[in-house]
Amino acid sequence: MLDHVKHVILVLSGKGGVGKSTVSTQLALTLKESGFKVGLLDVDLCGPSVPYLLNLEGKDVHQSSEGWVPIYTDSSKSLAVMSIGFLLKNRNDAVIWRGPKKTAMIRQFLTDVHWEDLDYLIIDTPPGTSDEHITVMECMREVKCDGAVIVTTPQEVALEDVRKEVTFCRKTNIPIIGIVENMSGFVCPNCRECTNIFSSGGGQSLAELIKAPLLGTLPIDPRVGVLAGTGKAVISEIPDCTTSTVFKEIVEKITK
After folding, report:
1. Which tens digit of pLDDT belongs to each residue from 227-246?
2. Of 67, 129, 136, 156, which sees the most CB atoms within 10 A?
3. For residue 42, with 0-12 CB atoms within 10 Å meaning exposed, 13-18 middle and 19 or more buried, which class applies?
């Protein structure tokens, strides 16, 4: 079912809570706003937040003769989304599955979803280096994967875990497209000054260490936080903010 997908990009993080799903959704929305046809696959089975972030909760997935039909964000069908969240009765339901069942579901997501023609498929993975990641890699052997975008935050404890993710990528022959440092400073809602409430420069030093590009540094901006759950692209809603500029730069780097 990935035969008509031109580019596949994994979004990884070594640690939970670094904003990986937010980066995945805004990356997909920025690609869409840039004129590409995009798919977003959420394989974070235990914490599927993509339906909430894109305001798609309550939507039902149905099957056709060609496979599962993804959920589209609007009538243009420029952004298609698939997540385990669409198969749960409500957002409070927990996915309590052992490894083999998780593996089977991810295989089904990667082989049985009818994506149609896509320029980019963004795969939002769970944090860490677990069964889910290995399953994705096994299923992608016959598909050209452009590589991984690795999301981190500036703190040393997050960077330590991201180094493990880098090792995973190298052992499984996944090219590293680059590093995104999220939560890099706090933008004051009044004066717009950015203050480094955590340490700074961690993403840059990691990028230099592993010899990969630093794709961008994203600050914490309360105005951007308000967009969570609306399904709106930051580049169209708040075009003048730093986050919009950074996402445009990231898309330019990965599409050139």
Report:
1. 999 999 999 999 999 999 99
2. 136
3. buried
